[in-house]
Model the fold of this input.
Amino acid sequence: MNTIDTHYDVVIVGAGVGGGAMANRLSATGARVLMIERGNYLPREADNWSVKAVFHDRKYTANETWRDKDGKPFHPSTFYYVGGNSKFFGAATVRFRVEDFEDLQHEGGVAPAWPVRYADFAPYYDEAERLMGTHGTAGADPIEPPRSGPMPYPTIGHEPEIEAIAEKLRAKGLRPFPLPIAIDRHKGGACIRCSTCDGFACKLGAKNDAEVRLVAPALASGRVDLVLDTKVRRMLTDASGKRVTGIEVEQDGQVKVISGDLFISSAGAINSTALLLRSANDKHPRGLGNNTSDQLGRNYMAHNNTAMMAIHPFRKNRVTFQKSMAINDFYLANAHRPWPMGNVQGLGKLQGGMLTANVRWLPEWLMDRFAERSVDWWIMSEDLPDPNNRVTLDSDGTIRVAYTPNNLTSHNELVRHWTRIMRSIGYPIIITQRMDITVSMHQCGTARFGNDPATSVLDPTCKVWDVDNLYVVDASFLPSSTGFNPSLTIVAQAVRTAEHITSNVFKASTAA
Done:
């Protein structure tokens, strides 16, 4: 719908994982909620599963240009739809470790402690897994943090080719486990376990993305309006600068102002920062939330990510759904290296044209043959917060992402070590591709939460320190990136923030 009332109890910018979860929870309170989405619904169509359309033509990628630290333009892999980037995520829904909430020493530096401990966060992970419909087996992960009970749905299991690899890895003393994954695979579910899940949108609606699991139920409550194809230009404050009074949007070429009592930015770590920077005024000359700390936009992180094809030249891999296994033996300090290295998980089955979209020097016919014979992996390590890795706006309003990778020694060693392991179990040809700045699917940081307004943008409930009625609920709040997919943690934090708003903000306003 594109009809907007003049005033709402809650206005949410973005209909992705964070915004969807906030709308889902707050709609149950009886509050009148507006979600503003820059894009539209992603159509369910044949091209959803087309390598050419998705990877070569970039049919669904935002038609947008950002700049890197040197001012060089690039086209980010980001998606503006109801559901946000989760429309194309691999559906991995993994809890962060107990150690991730504490100071964690890496070879490249320290990942800082959070203002909350894992024990405080764990109940919200329980609810986040339920909301996302996670499949998995509790206790199978050798470094799994404590939990109160089983996962919502049982593990989807490995296909024979992947189970054979798991057995070979166990023979080497490793402990592979079922990757927790959010797909509609339970009895009566729509998932057909296809090869076009990770990196593709689902034309069946069988991937448990933010649209399916969070936004749609919120809209069904009748308390939530969703406005599409609407760009938020800036937020407006009262004369004191302590409260947001309205939000300026551009819709169908017209500029409108929507007023509200409570405002939530859930546009993603990069676009939430851009919005708060664009909202600068005389009380907030450096952007909303930036008066005390000058931390807004800083500490951008996106993980150190490498895709790997492990190829057996004489044996085809007939697996369909490959993203069912993960290995955490190297996530913390380990027998191979006294530093955390990262996580290894199955990558959705690569097809020849997927990598040649970025690796131009490899002929497509050769990649087709390699892809038929490969087992594919996503190797992910933590990058560390660096205040010089930051999101800013150039004078013409273009987003600039200044990012220099760090903590690469451990990541590169994990790639080398996994290469040796793959060769030792019969895959002699290894092709790797490290992801660059254009891959912004795991964007996080930029508005970290903390206990001290001098060193953080948000308080522990994700409220902007300098503004009384503004929250940022997306991956911006993460003070460290950890080595895991962030989606489940964003949902858990949204549940936590919504609980705070319901118990404190709404009750206080009712009492007043």
User: Anything to note?
Assistant: Residues 487-511 form the longest helix (25 residues).
